[in-house]
Amino acid sequence: MVVDDHPMWREGVARDLAERGFEVVATAGDAASAMRIAKAVRPNVVLMDLNLGELSGVDATLMITGELPETRVLVLSASGEHDDVLQAVKAGASGYLVKSASAEELVEAVNRTAAGDAVFTAGLAGLVLGEYRRMAAAPDDAEDKPQLTDRETEVLRLVAKGLTARQIANRLVISHRTVENHVQSTLRKLQLHNRVELARYAIEHGLDSEPEAER
Question: Which domain holds residue 105?
Answer without folding.
Answer: 2-137
